[in-house]
Amino acid sequence: MKITNNILPKLDLKKIIDIVTCDDFNWFYNDKTTSLKNKTKYSYEAPQLTHTLIINKQVNSDWLSKLHPVLQIILNKKVKSIIRMKFNLLFPHKYKKNQKHCTPHIDNVGVKNYKVLLFYLEDCDSYTYFFKNKKIWKKVKVKANTLIEFDGDIYHAGSHPNKAKRKIVLNVNYIEAQ
């Protein structure tokens, strides 16, 4: 796992935020953050909004062309192909006692040897949790302009903000070029 802070120049970060928060940017409702049924005594499910730019290696959104120059900086990787690229938008959630995170999951069940990038657009009172042997292994605070890179077979779970007005994260699943 690699965590990189301040990955984008401030003007590029602002450009992405302005695009994904503009009135014309479409968000789509999801009842939950994953369809996997790995719920634990510490997990919960709550709605989120998503905007999928690429799905199954196919462009799914006209917004990709506007975002492409800035996304290239984030994806300054040896990328062979992008499996999925989407933005997640989460709103405050009232946690019940002992609830810490959404359901632990991997993004692409059945796909081998892929990588995941999580890019946080804004600061938020929320975390991403990473698991080993069904136990929390690492907890990363959501911090604006931070990129997390990890192997796709690592179970992870986000959490909704408590007091912040929203959490916006870019999630990219890709196959690395050799």
Task: Provide an overview of this structure.
Strands 1, 2, 4, 5, 6, 8, 11 and 13 form an 8-stranded antiparallel sheet that branches. A hairpin with a 2-residue loop joins strand 9 and strand 10. It is globular, with a radius of gyration of 15 Å. The protein has a single domain, classed as q2cbj1_9rhob like domain (Jelly Rolls, Sandwich). It contains 2 helices and 13 strands; from the N terminus they run βαββββαββββββββ. The protein is mainly beta and 178 residues long.
List keywords for this structure.
single chain, 178 residues, mainly beta, Jelly Rolls, 8-stranded antiparallel sheet, 2 helices
In short:
The protein is mainly beta and 178 residues long.
Major sheet details: 8 strands, antiparallel
The fold-level CATH name is Jelly Rolls
Name of the CATH architecture:
Sandwich
| Overall number of domains | 1
Counted beta strands:
13
Tell me the strand percentage band: 35-45%
CATH superfamily: q2cbj1_9rhob like domain
Any idea what the shape is?
globular
Low-confidence stretches: none
Q: Write down the Rg.
A: 15 Å
* Ends apart, CA distance between termini: 19 Å
Oligomer: single chain
Structural class of the secondary elements? mainly beta
